[in-house]
Design brief:
This protein has 321 residues and is of the alpha/beta class. It has eleven helices and seven strands.
Length: 321
């Protein structure tokens, strides 16, 4: 749980998780809190760690590196997500042998404008990458060890959810979704999300990831636009040359030629970056495959399955964090 000034809700979230998944190790990562978040989390029985670099992305990056578990559950500490849904997310992860399950928010707790913004960003990601996992900005997720240990977290703040979503889509990591309740924040707590500032940052991350993960699409689109401008500038010059045999508009011709060269260079860059992308994906895939599937490490425990007979056979009991 990444937390910054969540003293009003943190104890309840920790207690609810411990009830929902008995035996779970609950880690609270304090992120520069100035209230009693740490004290409340310790009193509730959580393992409290600290991340001095402010930002949710920095916390997730640190937690993924620090914690060793078979199954990881990520949830906000503001008590807006339904902690009781945790067993359903874990069950689906294990029974379907997945690497990520996203809790898709259902409820009327969205702040003004957030629902429309969330819907728009989901459509952009779905249009570029083919899917958005139903709710790409959800902070309620369950992961396998091999997802966590092969995820190169780069984002610093709230863009981390976008990075998680695009990473799973780009590498075709087995994922699914579960509807979860989404309610208002606890009384006395304040949202850290800034609608326009964070919305712009998320959009910027989407564009950056598009450049890295879909270079042919990204640079091809820019190249096509530059080519159209170049043709628009060159057409009257060419028409005049064919009619009179003269080229009086030399500067326009130079600009049109320069733009066409830029378009060709962008296409060449796209091909080179796409080759680098494939090499990165191969390296990520090899790193991913070094860890066993969650089904191979999970104990056969009917408590996590609707059908006990469908529970996988394995030896060691899992550590859920």
């Amino acid at each position: 749980m990444p937390c910054h000034n969540e003293e009003a809700a943190i104890a309840k979230v920790v207690a609810d998780l411990q009830v929902a998944v008995p035996g779970m190790d609950v880690y609270v990562y304090d992120n520069c809190s100035t209230d009693r978040t740490v004290e409340r989390a310790l009193a509730a029985g959580a393992i409290v760690c600290s991340e001095p670099h402010k930002g949710k992305g920095n916390v997730v990056r640190r937690a993924f590196a620090d914690i060793d578990a078979d199954i990881y559950l990520l949830i906000d500490g503001d008590d807006t997500y339904e902690a009781a849904a945790a067993p359903a997310l874990i069950e689906l992860l294990v029974s379907e042998n997945l690497d990520q399950v996203v809790g898709v928010r259902r409820g009327s707790a969205y702040r003004s404008g957030h629902e429309r913004g969330n819907r728009l960003l989901n459509r952009i990601v779905a249009g570029i990458f083919g899917d958005s996992m139903g709710d790409m900005l959800s902070g309620y997720r369950v992961f396998s060890r091999r997802f966590v240990k092969s995820f190169p977290a780069v984002s610093r703040e709230f863009e981390i959810e976008t990075e998680l979503t695009v990473h799973s889509l780009a590498l075709r990591i087995p994922s699914s979704t579960v509807d979860v309740g989404f309610s208002d924040r606890a009384e006395g707590s304040e949202s850290k999300l800034r609608t326009y500032r964070d919305g712009w940052k998320i959009l910027n991350v989407i564009l950056t990831l598009t450049r890295h993960e879909r270079p042919i699409f990204f640079f091809g689109l820019v190249s096509a636009l530059i080519t159209l401008v170049s043709i628009a500038l060159a057409t009257p010059v060419l028409a005049q040359y064919l009619a009179t045999g003269q080229v009086p508009r030399i500067p326009t011709l130079i600009v049109a030629s320069f733009l066409m060269m830029m378009a060709c260079l962008l296409l060449l860059a796209a091909v080179i970056i796409d080759g680098t992308r494939k090499a990165r994906h191969e390296a990520s895939r090899l790193s991913y495959m070094r860890y066993p599937a969650v089904r191979g490490t999970y104990v056969r425990d009917p408590a996590y399955y609707a059908d006990a007979a469908a529970a996988p056979m394995a030896v060691p009991a899992p550590r859920v964090g």
